[in-house]
Amino acid sequence: MKVNVVKDGKKKNYTIINNWKDVTLDKWIKLLKLKNLTPTQEAIENIALLSSMSKKLIKELSLVDVTLIMQQLKDIENTSATRFKNIITIDGKDYGFHPNFEQLTLGEWADLETFIQQDLQNNLPKICAILYRPIKEKGKNAYIIEAYDGSIDVRAEKFKRMKAEQVQQALVFFWTFVSVLSKITVSYLTETIQKIQNQLKQKHLQVNGGTLA
Fold first, then answer.
1. What's the CA gap between 13 and 5, in Å, rounded?
2. 129: closest CA among 96, 107, 103?
3. What is the pLDDT of residues 41-79, one digit of tens each?
4. C-alpha span between 90 and 88 (Å, rounded)
5. Residue 105, helix vs strand vs coil
6. What is the rounded end-to-end Cα distance, in angstroms, of the chain?
7. Using CB atoms within 10 A of its CB, is residue 101 exposed (0-12), middle (13-18) or buried (19+)?
8. Nearest in space to 124 (alpha carbons), one of 171, 81, 85
9. If we measure between CA atoms, which residue out of 8, 117, 124 comes closest to residue 57?
10. Rounded to 5 degrees, what angle do the CA atoms 145, 148, 154 make?
11. Per-residue pLDDT tens for 9-28?
């Protein structure tokens, strides 16, 4: 998208993103951090991140122009594609989203939990590096990803170039699973604890010569 700005009698062209696909994960993280700023500061930082205009120039724009630009940016985000993609390509390499959350290992879950609790926004590349991994084998309707070994730093750095919309949809998919898992986990742990208590009670009775009804 082109924006014409007239300054000192001279017209100059600047570009603003045409599509939410133009926003990388790295930029999206920066955008998320703007939520605590004042509306004016947020507008300046938003436009600077998503256009070729300098902050100095943005401050010289009229309130009407800034409002129009911010509305266009909001419309672009709201009309972004919402279809979840389980395979993404970065630097010519395919990465597959974890195909079965029920088979998440304890190591995967522990790292995801740590990154979420530490600093969700800044750790988004690392979270994506756990959820998306190199594809080892791919068929028509299925694929196999590499096993998780905890080595994600290099991949996380590459994933900063992921598209923001890809990350958003992946997280929605993951959070949905987490909300269900948390309920299942609590129920499972309660049931397990009850079984252990019953087993201990039974052993105690056997040791002391008691019998169960």
1. 6
2. 96
3. 988 998 998 888 889 888 988 888 888 888 888 887 777
4. 7
5. coil
6. 78
7. middle
8. 171
9. 8
10. 90
11. 667 788 888 887 788 888 87
Are residues 25 and 161 in contact, defined by beta-carbon separation less than 8 angstroms?
yes
- Judged on CB neighbours under 10 Å (0-12, 13-18, 19+), 42 is middle
Q: Express the helix, strand and coil content of the chain in percent, nearest 5 each.
A: 60, 15, 25
Name, in order, each residue with C-beta under 8 angstroms of 189's C-beta and a sequence gap of 6 or more.
none
Q: Does the CA dihedral 115-121-125-129 come out positive or negative?
A: positive
Stretch (H or E) spanning 95: strand 93-97
pLDDT tens digits, one per residue of 147-167: 998 899 999 999 998 888 878
Tokens 């929605």, residue? 172
CA torsion through residues 42, 115, 109, 160, sign: positive
CB neighbourhood size of 133 (10 A): 21
Q: Which two structure tokens, joined as six digits, stand for 189?
A: 């742990």
DSSP alpha helix (H) spans, 98-212: 106-119, 124-131, 153-158, 164-207
The residue type found at 42 is E
Q: pTM for this structure?
A: 0.64
Query: Among candidates 19, 24, 73, which has minimal Cα distance to 44?
Result: 73
Alpha helices in 52-163 (DSSP H): 55-59, 63-78, 106-119, 124-131, 153-158
